[in-house]
Amino acid sequence: MTKATDLTLEEQASLTSGADMWHTKPVERAGVPAIMVSDGPHGLRKQVDEGDPLGIGGSVPATCFPPAVSIGCSFDPDLFARVGAALGAEASIQNVAVLLGPAINIKRSPLCGRNFEYISEDPIVSGVLGAAYVTGVQSQGVGTSLKHFAANNQEFERMSISAEIDERTLHEIYLRAFERVVTESKPWTVMCSYNKINGVLSSQNEWLLTELLRKQWGYEGLVVSDWGAVNDSVAAVAAGLDLQMPGTQGKSDAEIVKAVKSGKLAEQAVTSAAQHVLDLVATATKQAGQVAGPLDVDAHNQLAREAATRSIVLLRNEGGILPLKPSQKIAVIGAFAKDPRYQGAGSSKVNPTELDTALAAIQAIAGDVPFAEGFSLKPGASDAENAKLQAEAVQLARDAEALVLFLGLPAEHESEGYDRATIDLPAEQLALLDAVVEANPNVVVVLSNGGVVAVPFAETVPGIIEGWLLGQAGGGATADVLFGIANPSGKLTETIPLRMQDTPAYLNFPGEFDTVNYGEGLFVGYRWYDARELDVAFPFGFGLSYTSFEYGDASAHVTSDGDVEVSFSVKNTGTVDGREIVQVYTGLELSRVQRPVRELKGFASVALAPDQAKVVTITIRREDLAYWNIAVSQWVVEGGRYTVSVGASSRDIRSTTTVDIVGDVVRIPLTRDSLMSTVMENPVAGPIVQEKLQQAMSAASGLSEIMPEGVSPLQLIGSIPIGRLSQIVPIATDHEVDELIAAANQHL
Ligand code: BGC
Predict the structure, then answer these.
(1) Reduced to 3 states, what is the DSSP secondary structure of residue 463?
(2) What contacts 380, CB < 8 A, 6 or more positions away?
(3) What is the H or E stretch that residue 78 is in?
(4) Model confidence pTM above 0.85
(5) Cis ω on the peptide bond leading into residue 379 (within 30° of 0)?
(6) What's the alpha-carbon Rg for the chain, to the nearest Å?
């Protein structure tokens, strides 16, 4: 195997940028081949014309699986791994070495134009499912690219905006999922994001790419830039970026060589980047061709359908309107039934091998049901045109027993590259809904949307199915759920708010003057709504079924590894097979740090036949209980009695128990600025100061006179820096204080 040190500086530098849009550069002299990468994430987008400079031309047909927004609602790592393996197989057959996904950025605001590519507002969900995806793809000898590292939570000014995030929030919300996927599944590559984090571009961020990713998380793979994310190639290599994409026609390579020769850039940085490229090429070459073609189009389409079925979230089912019966007089309204929105726009857009429509699938089950378009999907359609379509739909609605009304976001409403302006459905669709409901209230709304939409009709219509963007086989999956051929089991990986004004980032999105302030801190998604006790349309974790589930009492205990095992029974108390996504949340009321009321720590998707009961055991990893302590810049598990809540959603807690956790010992170096509250917790200084205080108290000093009875002296002096203690409570001289600090720090 070629080592970077066997290559000349020029050859090493040549490896640090691509040959073109999708390939690394070969080094022919040394027998190093080029490899190809392609998008990702929910299907393979291998360009037909590799010379297409913008990379937006046509791509080879590939299975379009449900995008992350949808399949995330399965909460099922096994399904992610199976879909990942199928994606890996397609890439392997096409000789693509690395699939550019998964995208696991947190959904901070519902307005982010790319939320359809992201999994959740919660880092544990994104981390667990992202890790399973990576494992699945890589099991086929194809690499992944974990993206966009990090804090790429909006499209507005995405290539320049600085995400201003405090340290705790950054680790606990925006980095946690990345840390999990990196350490658990070892993606072959990590793709840095476009944006800046606290003023520094991710592509040139040494703290992010080297300190954190490599040194703290132990990452050994390759770091690739997002396409066009590098501003200064020399600074990028110095910071720890290995591969700049797309290619720069040799410009960046020459700059790198020049910088090394002039002493501006350490040669070691170039060697290290080149070595990571060589390692990737070697791994990819060794594993290439693991899957023999041709692609089994039907089998993958079946898997896409299964995944789509598992993605659908039943939001409302009043009066048993669902499932529909094929014998009913049904009418279908809404352009999406015929012209489905099944994926988002931008770099992830796949050229599907097949495409279902819900209308055809419904007709295959229920015969020749009538259809009216209801509204036009043509951008800029006139009011008159929409009024005509609406009138036709209302006419149809009048003589049906039940209506299936397909509403959603037209394609131009959301895409990579820009954010949405509103979470509202288009006015003509809401007007259609009102008119149809007036004509016939037996309406089931089926939604197609990548970003969350407001559902002001949530109390008006008896049935709502959140279909998200379901991939190429979504039409069949939707029909299966409508008629009860499949029982819906998806749950929401993000909160559906009542109004934009309630959302966590409302006053801090999308930023101004090149800066976006993550002012809501840790309180993203349900963490926010729960802390502020805000009503929501549908909470995180929510989803209905055609059957019902009963939960038994939960018990929790700490294992010998320090993890927490939570057990409870779940029973299918209805009459049809079903799946329940059970969720475990924890909280620590008496915490020393600010905390959300409850945070998801584990989940499982449990399949149950009627009357069947299972005991479910969910393990919460000890590290997932940790918060990021900024005094020591480390994860710390705080000791205390944690509440463990088992629920069917974040707002439907079925059983609660507690577990006592022994905390980590945090040794914070003492200085003269350390507060007495910190000093008292120090194992060396604490007891000494305690004793001196006791002495002062019993010597009837002024201290005991000014203290209310029953109050510990610590409450009074806790916020005094020890360096100033002698000025206020003269229990130790300045010199004694210095000695105490030195003694305490000796034991760090
Ligand atoms: C996107 C990435 C994508 C890359 C290559 C970028 O615009 O942000 O997600 O992988 O293009 O197409």
Answers:
(1) strand
(2) none
(3) helix 77-93
(4) yes
(5) no
(6) 29
Q: Which pLDDT belongs to residue 701?
A: 58
CB contact at 8 A, 332 and 445: no
Cα–Cα dist 718/722, whole Å: 9
Atom 4 in ligand 1: which residue has the minimum CA distance?
227
Contact 278, 1 (CB under 8 A): yes
Question: For residue 10, what are the CA distances in angstroms to 259, 339, 372, 622?
Answer: 12, 52, 64, 47
Question: Would residue 598 be called left, alpha or beta, if left means φ above 0 and alpha means ψ between -120 and 50 degrees?
Answer: beta
Ligand 1 binding pocket includes 122 (Cβ within 6 Å): no
Which of 225, 227, 230, 244 has the most ligand 1 atoms within 8 A of CB, as the residue to mutate?
227
Question: What does the DSSP 8-state code read for residue 110?
Answer: T
Ligand 1 pocket test: pick from 23, 47, 100, 154 the residue with the most ligand atoms within 8 Å of its Cβ. 100
Q: What is the DSSP-derived secondary structure letter of residue 633?
A: T
Q: Using DSSP bridges, classify how beta strands 613-620 and 599-608 pair: parallel, antiparallel or unpaired.
A: unpaired
**Structure token digits, residue 273:** 């980047």
| Cα 45 to averaged position of ligand 1 atoms, centre (Å) | 11
* Ligand 1 centroid distance, CA of 244 (Å): 13
Helix, strand, coil shares of the chain, percent, nearest 5, are: 35, 20, 45
Q: Are 741 and 685 spatial neighbours (Cβ–Cβ below 8 Å)? A: yes
Report the half-sphere exposure of 644 (CA within 13 A, side-chain side): 26
Question: Is 6 tagged catalytic?
Answer: no
Which residue's C-alpha comes closest to atom 12 of ligand 1? Answer: 347
- Return averaged pLDDT per consecutive 10 residues of the chain, 748 residues in all: 96 98 97 97 89 70 98 98 98 98 98 98 98 98 98 97 98 98 98 98 98 98 98 98 98 98 98 98 97 96 98 98 98 98 95 97 98 96 97 97 98 95 97 98 98 98 98 98 98 98 98 98 98 98 98 98 98 98 97 97 98 98 98 96 98 98 92 92 90 77 70 81 85 88 88
Q: What is the pLDDT of residue 52?
A: 64
Distance CA 303, CA 731 (A): 73
Check residue 617 and give its pLDDT.
98
- Which residue type does 653 have? I
117 C-beta closer than 6 A to ligand 1: no
Q: Is the shortest distance between the CB of 310 and ligand 1 below 6 Å?
A: no
Determine the 3-state secondary structure of 616 from DSSP: strand
Residue nearest atom 7 of ligand 1, based on CA coordinates: 227
Q: Which of 39, 76, 122, 226 is catalytic?
A: 226
Q: CA of 191: how far to CAs of 20, 231, 284, in Å? A: 17, 15, 17
The pLDDT of residue 220 is 98
